[in-house]
């Protein structure tokens, strides 16, 4: 999986404008689409690799965490920075991160909303390899995937899906609950204020 929404951004995460003053007719589709993307990618029976060729905050980091292997180009940033926006990474964002890094690192990263440089991400295991550029990231992805030619496909698939079973099952059984929590959480005035402040910060940074 390699994305390119801009030359330096793998994915900027969720569109904050969908959460800031959310439109009642869109918010349900917005969140259930994200749930479905997570279910499809995290629960994919295929081996998956993220070739991360740009910054990857929050939802961008989540997409890469759905994959079994992450390869990232130098001098970018990655992490679940939700607390910096005054929001909370949902349970399934957290469990995706816990599939990659130890609990202690995840707790520190999630509570502080820390973004990691490529080198820092490698050190804590948030990514698995560094590539020199996008072509190298794709070549390394192909090398990772080619090792499965020697593994029985059913054995590999059942092993992956068993490891991910409880997180996937939770989502399948709690989609509606998760949606309602999201809607009520982002609807709170204090959360809206935080998002407004964060958006102002992004605009101010751009104006410099
Ligand atoms: C009580 C229990 C509760 C349990 C939990 C319940 C509910 C949970 C509730 C909510 C969970 C939501 C989970 C959220 C996930 C997310 O993904 S939030 C989004 C996080 N993303 C970011 O923080 C990225 C911010 N952006 C940047 O850092 C940078 O823009 C960049 C991506 C590194 C790119 O930098 P650069 O190339 O320099 O570009 P600019 O900064 O100049 O930006 C260009 C324009 O793009 C706008 N923009 C950037 N990111 C976003 C975004 N994610 N959404 C909307 N818009 C974005 C930026 O404002 C600029 O816009 P203009 O050109 O000025 O219009």
From TrEMBL:
Location relative to the cell: Mitochondrion matrix
Gene3D superfamilies: 2-enoyl-CoA Hydratase, Chain A, domain 1, 6.10.250.170
Pathway in which the depicted protein is active: Lipid metabolism; fatty acid beta-oxidation
Single GO BP term: fatty acid beta-oxidation
InterPro entries: ClpP/crotonase-like_dom_sf (IPR029045), Enoyl-CoA_hydra/iso (IPR001753)
Keywords on record: Acetylation, Fatty acid metabolism, Isomerase, Lipid metabolism, Mitochondrion, Transit peptide
GO molecular function annotation: delta(3)-delta(2)-enoyl-CoA isomerase activity
Catalytically driven reaction(s): (3Z)-dodecenoyl-CoA = (2E)-dodecenoyl-CoA; (3Z)-octenoyl-CoA = (2E)-octenoyl-CoA; (3Z)-decenoyl-CoA = (2E)-decenoyl-CoA; (2E)-tetradecenoyl-CoA = (3Z)-tetradecenoyl-CoA
Statement: the UniProt record of this protein carries the keyword NADP: no
Pfam hit, one: ECH_1
GO CC entries: mitochondrial matrix
Quaternary structure, from the entry: Homotrimer.
Described function: Key enzyme of fatty acid beta-oxidation. Able to isomerize both 3-cis (3Z) and 3-trans (3E) double bonds into the 2-trans (2E) form in a range of enoyl-CoA species, with a preference for (3Z)-enoyl-CoAs over (3E)-enoyl-CoAs. The catalytic efficiency of this enzyme is not affected by the fatty acyl chain length.
Protein's UniProt name: Enoyl-CoA delta isomerase 1, mitochondrial
């Amino acid at each position: 999986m390699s994305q390119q929404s801009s030359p330096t951004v793998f994915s900027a995460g969720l569109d904050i404008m969908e959460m800031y003053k959310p439109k009642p007719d869109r918010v349900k589709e917005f969140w259930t689409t994200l749930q479905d993307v997570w279910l499809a990618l995290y629960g994919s029976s295929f081996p998956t690799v993220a070739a991360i060729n740009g910054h990857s905050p929050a939802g961008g980091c989540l997409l890469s965490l759905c994959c079994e292997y992450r390869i990232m180009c130098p001098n970018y940033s990655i992490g679940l920075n939700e607390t910096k926006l005054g929001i909370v990474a949902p349970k399934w964002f957290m469990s995706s991160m816990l599939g990659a890094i130890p609990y202690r690192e995840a707790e520190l990263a999630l509570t502080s909303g820390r973004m990691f440089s490529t080198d820092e991400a490698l050190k804590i295991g948030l990514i698995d390899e560094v590539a020199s550029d996008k072509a190298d990231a794709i070549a390394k992805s192909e090398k990772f995937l080619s090792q499965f030619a020697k593994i029985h496909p059913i054995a590999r698939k059942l092993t992956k899906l068993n490891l991910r079973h409880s997180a996937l099952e939770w989502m399948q059984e709690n989609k509606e609950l998760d949606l309602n929590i999201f809607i009520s959480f982002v609807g709170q005035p204090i959360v809206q204020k935080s998002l407004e402040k964060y958006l102002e910060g992004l605009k101010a940074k751009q104006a410099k």
